[in-house]
Protein 1
Amino acid sequence: MMHPTLVLNSPSVHFWSMASLLLLLAALGAASAESSGAALREVVRNRRCLPEGRQSVFPFSGERLWVFEVNDWTSQQLTTAVAAILLKEHAGYGVDINHVTSGTGVYQRIAKDSARGVAMEQHFNSGRQFGYANLEVWPAGQRDKYLQYVTNDGVVRDSTGGSTELSGPLHFEDMGFVGYEGRSGWFVSQAFAEDPRFPITPEFYRAYDRAGNGSRPVIQALQAESSVLCGSPGVCTGISAVECPGSREPDDVELVWCPPKVDGATPAVLAKSPFVDQGFNEEIAQGNGFRFAVRYVGLQKFSTASYEALANGIAQVIHIWRPSLTMARLQREDVKISRVMLPSEDCGEHRSDGRGDWSCDFPLQALSKLASVEAKEDPVINKFLRKFSIPQGTEDPTGPPSESLEGGGLRELLSDLLSRMDDTAAAAGAGAAASIRPATAEEIFDTACDWVKSNEHTGARWNYWVEARNVPFFADTLHWLYPLPFLLALSFAAIAYIVFLEWPWLHTTLTRSSTRRIMARTGHCRTDLELRLREAARVKPIESKPLTLPLAIGRSMGHMSDALPLSPKMRGSTSIPKTPTTKGPNVHHRECTGLTDNYWKGLAERAFEIEEVKVFWKKVEQWTLEARSLTELPAPKPPPVGDYVYLAHHSFPCLQQHGRVSIPLLRSSSGAASGQSLEVELVVSECDGGAKKGRDFGAGTHRVVFAPGEDHAVVNVPIKHHLDQWQNSYWFQVRLTSVLSGGGGIIASPAEAIVLVLSEEAWPANIPETKRGGAGISLMRYFIYLDRLRRGEKWRKTMIGMCWLPVHSVFISTIVQKVLVDHVVKGIQNTTNYADIVWFYTESVILIIVQLISLGLNRWADVVQTRNRGRTGGIRQVHRGELLRKFMHMEHSEHWLASDASWLYALIYDADVVTGKAYFSVFELFQSITALFLSLVLAIGLAFWAWSQNRGTSDARIASPGTWQAIWYILGVVIIIPLGLFGVWFRRKLMWAAVIARKDLECAWFKSCTWIITHWRQLYGLSGQEKVALEKRVLKQNSEFIPAHWDARDTMNDTAWVTHWIQGVAYCFMLIFGLFALCEYSRFGIGAMEVGTYYALCKIYLSVGKYVGRLSGVFVDMQQAVVSLREIAALNNQVDQRSQRREARRWAARIGSRCKASLLRHGSSNSLEQNVCAQGITIAHGMCFVRPMEHKVGSTFAELKLRACTIPLGCIVHVSLGNERVLRSFLGLISQVIHPTDAMGQELPDDAEGVSVPNGLKVNMLPVGSVGMGTTAPSLLDQLEFTGAPKDLCHALAEAVGLEPHRETASLGMGSMQVFSIIRAILVDPDVLCAFRPLAFVPMDMRMSVHMLLRLWQGGGGLPRVAEFLGCPLKQGIYRTSTRSLIIGNPEQDLWGGFKTDVHLDLARYLWKGPDLDPSSVGSTTSSAAEGSPWRPSGSPTPTPKLRLGRGLQDKNIQDIWGGS
């Protein structure tokens, strides 16, 4: 039976070669007696490589000890020798070598859990602290144990399922890759691989598959050259080779392993030791149809036998690896070998005990450096071991290595070692074959030393692996001046930068000039109210600040009696007069000094002290006496010439969507019949109505020509239809300025008219009605669009500023911190070049400057958005102004649909809500989106950073975690946003309900408080019990409001917390899992979670939380704003000025190519006066006024229905009725304060008639209450000037009735206020004035005088006659009829009676008291029942004036064209 030994029967084995080898081994007996790894310890201890005079970088003097592990691998010995030389001689560390015969248990030794090897045992026994490292670890052989160690926390499980718990937790540091790669394989000689005798070449694994037909010759050739007898004694079968009885360390004992169930002669693979590529040989030998034995022969025999077999072409499979001395020798001597091509897919799983099913080729391995935890605590050794790297060597692995060690790698080291071994053999007198042996320790050390000396200044740059403390002067913390010089320089630069930003560039209020300007505007830090109240609370009053007139008078005298006048002395004063007080502990008596005699006088007495006023009233009295004696109305003064031109009306309403407005001009009948042409000038221009030329209408001057025989002309003015912008009603003016040609023609009144432009679109931005009933998104979108159009460039600047703000806090600051921590600090740690160190420190300064510049840009963005956002002046006040304009220009009955408190609440509260929580929330929305986008970009950037850091890692299990973790962090950022917003959207209806409930109850409370505060003058009439009851009512409303407020507050806060919860939980997840990743990277190099990355992620998630919270807050605010937007939209979209819209539609419907102002009610060939007086104001038969259902009862106007009648003009009409509210409704209908409705209270159709007032007439009604404008205008004179009358006339008329022009209207009593209302109406000078009991509240001493003044205005020709009597004649360049009409409700007969020209009307005769009319009869101008006339002149028992029941036009031309419409 064959002995289980390797059979070498080839004749190619030469006897003389073996003899030479034996001679060399005998000569080098001492070297072979001890392995080179064990001897290397003594060599490193006793020898020195670098020059003796060279000082080490650190003066450690060997106090810090590091032990390096080596085994019998030549590449590891060379690498460790290089590291030992550098660490000992260059860095100043103590170095020792621990020799082990194999890599088994490497993880336990590095973790210092087991002490194996002479050096390690000695240091353990001595108790000395030391670090331990292995600079060439092949990870694939024991990777399963490494993973078990990682996953089982120090518990290593064996193949039987049992476990061994280690004595303590294993810890070590992965210091990265050593720089070169390693790979094992099965090799055969090229001669054997390319032998043509074999059907399948032996370099292909199919040649060894026993199931294949072509494998028998190859297997027979292998059996002939090298075979073992499996199944014989001494052969290990089935179990792992490392578990065989003969397997022990040292690993130079011969061992044979056979696969299970294999007997007889079996081809054997030649290998060194079962501890090299542990388990791989056994797994491959029984896979892919193989039945190989494995022959382990130890280091000495393997070195010679493997070389001889491959060099001489013996049919033998050899297990060798790269890098190795054997492979380097074969490559140097150009021995051709071939790798057995094993499979590369479906490899199975490898186990270090050989019980896996691995069937592929040996994997390519990036060889690692591992060190004990002491490396983490020592920055110098940490940096050295991490940067320590020996490159692979020559780029072409098949080519020859470089001849020089300079810039060389491991291939050059092995080549140099072989040369050194050849020299040793040559010196011993042996042949070339004698060098086929392991290298000695001296040869290893000398080769490593030569590499160190050759590469100090090459690409290896090992002098940077350990560097001295090279710190620039400005960063040297040990310098005695640190940090004063650099701190002063940075402070000076920062101050200069701030000053430049704040003053010459931004001009902020931080500058001295702006501070002086603001202080000069107010000059004090206390309000007038505080000063006044403190003065009242003190025994001795304090001095207040000076106030200029007239504001001082209004503020200082507003608290006095309503009848308190200002003396001439006080009028000229510029300060509040001091009020002396009597001294005494409990006496605070205010003396009445400083009050002139004028204070005690009434209106009449004060008025008649002025001589000019006496003259005026004498003229008025004389005129009144003459008027009392008249029995019929005098004829009005005709125009100076018969040819005159005038506008058809004093106002022309139109709808914006019509695109134009037609302005009709009329020429008198006599002028048209004169046979002459006439040319006049019509100017279209802006006025105070809000219309802007070019934007809203086409302004300009028009030359209008009347051809002979033409009595009308039309000028079309273009109107801009704003499709994307809602507008309140606005107007501009048209004026007849002059007659350009045509002889003696003149301009007549009305020569000026306003063009009222009405819009039928919806607020905001003409939103369609179909989009106003949804969730509020469209309403919000149109509102934002409206404000964006309004703000224009400022809106864009604000958006840019708001979006830039997070760039600094989220993006720049995070990047600067990330670069400082992970780039600058690491760069300083990882470089030894002083120039590079200085650059990194300089880079840190540059980054700080970048941070400072970004801070300045942040300040610029904040100033830009603050100055351009317009939250108050640009938006809030604009919307308040729109609401106020809408409210002011609504017709009286339109105010009944929404209460005054609702308008005021919307004006104050809703406008503020939509500004802060809708308009400005848009900027916060985009700011948050920008911040979240930047956060996402940063997260993606960190993911790419992780990917770039890991893409060079060959082990995907180590490389992939960094990328996948970053992806999870990105998904975390992305998922937070929709989840939070969905939570807000899901609760939107609940928020609406809560906000509406709070809003309604607060509005009710607000209304009560507003009434109490604005009616404080009436509180003196309430008893204490009544005041308490009123207070209880308000407190009850307050108690109802507070719970609703709590619900709304909690609902919105809790809704916002939905997002806070989501973000907070996500942040917690990021903290814990990011910490895990940081620990993995810091300890094991797995992933790419650096400290700066972790800090950046923390800041990113905090920023995401901040801005997602703000984003959710924006959406919560927007849901609240939707309620206010709907309220404002409802108010702004309330149909206003219905009568004007009705007229505009009628006008547009009847305008044609032959338009002559179809809405005219008068026109005459002789004079305007005759037509106006003859026509009158017509009331259609069955005309109704019905209040809306929600406002049936009011204090001013009541419902009524009338029969047809016509009110004559040009006289004073006395209207009497017992029900004063119905009487006021009649006067309101005539004066067009209120307008007719149908029987259901709805608006009349456009073709229905109600009250017909001749065009060209201005009709006004004297308000029942006060018309004072409070503090809007400080004095009476200012408010009287609002009428457009000259200032001197206003002053003279006020003094004529005893009023003081510089008094504030709020200080007037009820009687004085009524007098003020009357003279204001006279200054307005309408054609028809309606008044209900105008003298009821006039003081007794002025009642007769005011009565005469009203009669003078009516019968004397209006305001021009009054001005003439006052000595302030008006300049009249345009003819206006002198006819005025005064319609008085329930006048006092003792004052108004006795004038025969007055007309009396008993309104009860015209009230409709029967059943409802047929709707078809509404609008008829004839009565269905013959009624006696209620008209009668003063003092006549029977009516004499003819009652007009129809309208008929006397101008035949106009009647023929337009009929009686």
Protein 2
Amino acid sequence: MSFDAAPQAPVEQTHSLLGLDDTLPPIEDQPVLEYFIIKQEVNLEVNFRDKRIEGTTDVIVATFNDKIEEISLDAANCEIDTDNVFVTELREVNGEIVEGQKRKTTATYSDPYEKLSHPKGWAWRAEHHDLRRLRARSVFHSRKSDVPAENREFEGCTPVFGSLKINLRGKAEQDRPRLIIRKSMGFDGGEKTNKQFKLTIPFVNNHPRDGVHFVGVDPLDTRFTHMYTRSSINPGTASCIFPCVDDHGSRCDWRISIKYPRTLGDALQQALATQSNGTSGNKMQIDGPERVNNLAEEDKLREMSVVCSGFLMEETVDPKDDHKKIMTFEPEKKVSVQKIGFAVGPFEHIDLSSEFRTEEDEVKLGMNALKVHAYCLPHRQDWVRNTSAALTMAADFFTYTFARYPFGNFKAVFLDDLVEDTVSLYSMAFISNRLLFPEDVMDTEIEVTRKIVYTLASQWIGINMIPNTRNDLWLIIGIAHYMTDLFMKRLCGNNEYRFRMKTLSDKLVEVDVERPCLYDLGPILHLGQFEMDFMALKAPLVFFILDKRLIKASGGHGLTRILQKLLTKVQIESSDKSTILETEKFRITCEKGARYRLESFWAQWVHGSGCPRFDVKAKFNKKRLCVELTLKQIQYEAVKRPELEKSDFLRVIKERRSGVKLGEVQPLYTGPMTVRIHEADGTPYEHILEIREDATRSTKFEIPYNTKYKRLKRTRRMKEKQNVGASMDAENLDDTLLYCLGDVLQTPDEQRDWELIDWDPDTERKMDQESYEWIRVDADFEWACDMRRTLEPYMYVSQLQQDRDVVAQQDAMLYLAHGPLHPIASGFLVRTLIDRRYFHGIRTMAAAALPRQANIKDISMLGLRQLMKAFSEMFCHKDSNQPKPNEFSDKKQYNVRCAIINAIAQVRDANTYKCPLEARQFILDQLLFNNNEDNPYSDHFYIALLVEALATSLIPSKQDEWYARQNKVPNEEEKQFLEKAMEQIERVLRRDEWTNSYQNIWTIAGLEAKRRLMKADVIPKSYLDFGQYLLDGTRDLIRIKAFESLIDLGAMMDPTVFTFLIYSLTTDPSPFVRSKLIDAAASGLAAIAFGEHTKVTKSEPLHDEGDPILLVQDSAEEINARKEKFARKENLDAALKALLREMDETYGADERHYSTAMRKALDHPGLGRAELESMLDLAAMMFEEANDWVVTLNLPKAWKVERPAQQLANRLTIAFKSYYKTKPKQPIVQQATTAVVAPTPAPAPAIEPKRPVPLARTSSIKINTHKSSTPQRPTPQPHVEKDTIVASPVVSRQPSTSSSSTPKPSKPDLASIPSAKRPRPDKEERHQSPAPKRPKVEKHSLPDGGSERKKRRMVTLKTRNLKRLALILGQPLPKPVPNGRTSLPSGPSRDLSSVKDSITAKPARKPLPSGEHPVRKPLPGGPSSSPHSQKPVHKVSSSTHSLSTPKPKASSPMATSVASTPANPAPARPKIKIIRKPQPPPAT
């Protein structure tokens, strides 16, 4: 049966995504429990075929006091056999731990993941996303305040769920009385008594949603079978593997034994060909059609192995089954469960330390030499060797620079389907196979090496040393990245290191707006990977500038020396307290090491958000012979609220909903700043300025000037011009160093060919008059800031050519890239591009800056011609655009080559907004004539770059109405070139199908090119071009790119595409694919919210009316629409409202398709906790909350018994059958009475009523959909005659039992009615307790002397139309019946006619505390008594018992029906609202 709840009135409230659940009580953090884990032993077996992990875990717990009787552990998404949980008390005897008697105990387990689903009868839709989130609040909840990791052995632990509760007293001791002895506080009040218990818990984990991932088990998954644990720095994931205390501060000893199949054939239960005839002793299930591709014979024999945290202690064959093996691991040190991980698969072992470490280094390191091992799936050894080549070198570098490796060895395991690229665990790391690259691929080697080395650095900081609370996580992330950057500096050079840091600094200044501070970022890392990305960006930069300041303050002892002492101290002490990092303690450590106060630095960079922004102005004062430098901090003025981006849409929503505290912008940043002034004679002078806290935002400094004669400058400039192009011989070294960079292309012929010009005489005269060459603020790179300087252009050119620091050159390039358009600037950019002595990053910046110089006034396309000539000179045959055979051995030249191609594609004509045809043809020629035959390196990335550049050149930079009109005019030349370009893109796509490129990068580049061209309306949209790549079996990266392309083109809201997207997002076996598709769906909804797919219809003016010269401006509607579109990207609330409006107006016709697909996704049992939370966010974006809720209730089930007519001798044969009750066993007999159309009240007897009678009172229990505020009083009668459902016309929304204030007549003498039901002694004993008394009122008997009979356990359906109700319940139409009552069976059976009218029939009851008037509440077992003047009410009863209802003797002659004639019968069938109130507990 289905009942529809009453619709709720709409209430104006905040969007459900942004609400902080203010109306609900907050979820309180669990208190610290006074016990801790000493050791945990896990014995588990891995079953690949069924995706199951089962086993037992022994948890040794120490309690602090004797009052603890229950232990709470974390377990989720698994089954616990609570009937077989054992507890053993451990005692210490003669210094040894002795186990006591092992006994069973009581345990309760409530799976928190059950909150992620709901009962089937609830019938929740996608619109019930708010109810789903409320139900799962406890699962999504994250602790607000952390318990420090220090002194956990004295404080206790904090389980995240506490879902498994185990009683420490055995089952035999549950009912045994305890002796409580009270001790005086004077003896040992401050001493905690420790007791140790061993808890043995069996568990089974079938098809895990979180915590464990299986690969290569599904029928269509043909990859090598393996499994691994999924770990997270946030609590809640590890408890999905086995029961534990999922707390980052609870570190204990471990022993992990894993039973696994010996071979790959055993794992998939595929027998060898020699065993398929059944000769094997073990009956193995032969795999038939379930797996499409059965394993080859050689693959069936591949040995499986386990890679786990810790040392391998034992490896044996299972004595019960020789097809299984057991491996046992023990970590050397205490570690939390979040850092434990293991993987099982057919891994191949590679000893990286022996292959890449020389004998000399081995001897030098001695015992400190770290053993580095790699494990990979078959056929990937060469790629692993190439990818992990730097790991051994990094291990030696960290050992030399900082301290010895804290564990025994390091294992790198390469796995499939990892969501993150790398995961750091105890003495090991999980690395995604996406990072593997062969020897001939060099494009990704630096970044991949950085990621892998970071996992090794995390072993020192992050695994061995842990944060005290989540607020201290920035220390772990920052120091590990700092150590990694130091190694990469050793590997790639100082220029690469400083250039990358400057690039990241500029990026941080841009993104660190309205973001939380580093200290507050740790507790919200669970929101998504975007928070970790921001921390990984800012924390290393903070440590970089901290190192610079410590070096300047201490005279050379920077952060490296401090970390070396810290890590060495940890190795020596090896205590738990020394391995805990805390923000304030680390600050004190740095202050002691450098003797430099860091309070202001910590307040500004750690506890503050944002970055400083300086406006620098310099002026030379001739009178005082000094340089006046003004530093003004403008972070308050310059910071603008950034526009919402599609990629950040989900992040902003989650941060807003979680109430993320945004850091305050610092009004004033303090600290030292180095200013370097290159004076007239070329000599640099450094000055250290101190920005103090007492200074204002605008500070003026006077810097002394040293050069007295400017003629030195003129003499030096003449020398420079004479030494142009001079060789770098020893005798000319001093002269050429003054002008060593950018001095190419100086001859007249070269200047003519490259169209270069020099400074004009006026500018040179002005340069000679300057008092300094250039001024560089923050010369030592001690600030991550934005610096605005007002220098002359020639000063930036001097800085670019004469300053050796790559950061100074980068600053100069940033000015030239955004400076004025001038042929002189173009000339210096192309000289920088050509000069190979520059760092390759500076040269690529010069190439990226040249496209702007293509629109110089009166010199059209100068930058384009210079770019093409530079590429031709370096990489093409002479005087042609045909490229030479590829030669990528010089990686710096390869980077410059790629940068020039991208720059040529970015050139645009200022008038047509198009890329010139010659530039497009140049890129097409490079793709056509590309030759990679003799190149030792792969050109896969280069061809992908050419495809993307070709697509970029075809897209106009601005598409106005003029361009749209021009597109309609067929241009044969443009059409032919577009056909050629598309033909080449298709050729690359086909070529990738024949010969696979690295990770199918050609297909990904081709799909990206098509997507961009379709979005720019260059080619028509064709969803089939992407749909063919969505099939199963396609590489994950290609499927992700195809989905992203369809979503970006606006196909997401097509019902078919949306349904398939949600289906793939839900059912894809790879968690990496699921996470990427969730992000893509969020960006698609963000595009709708921002109005990207909204078609604005502009009103076209009539051409035949008005003046043709008249310019008509935009109408008010168009202006408002444009304002609203801008507001969508600035205000999150406006964007979400616009999204709901678009869903309603534009896509409302297909809403049922979206709702059905989303409902299936939300109900899918395979989604993890974080994935389901993100899906709820998507549902809340798309759908408004539902105002109704349809609940489906199961019909009551009953049993009936049948006995066959023929029985065997000495046997009784009976048959039991179940059925559902839909009708009462016996029809309810209703006596016909004459219905009165106009009900008139009966004349009252001669009794003075105590109160007026305003309304008639129904003799029934009224039940509504609202919660009852007052529980019903339990019935004192031992017998219940019938369960009836009585229809009452009284409509009431209140929880009280009656809406009438009529005085109660007194009860008659009690008479018993025989009942076939067995008396219940427990109910008879309740009569000994007096019930609340009723007031004494006179009771009137019926005309025949009988009293009104009571009916038992009546449930009322409230409706206004009894005829409709009778039809629904399958009953005859209602007729007036007398309002009879049955007497209570508390006395001997007597004749009903002998009952007298008396008020002494029963002692009076006290009035119930229900209000001003004493109104009796109805009994749960029967209706309350009716007043004498009450009109009878029609009742439609449905019996649930087999007893017959006693008929009343007679009815009042004046009784009339109130419900027989409704005023306005409803034409439509009303919905029935039924909620049965729970029975209250029996009174004691």
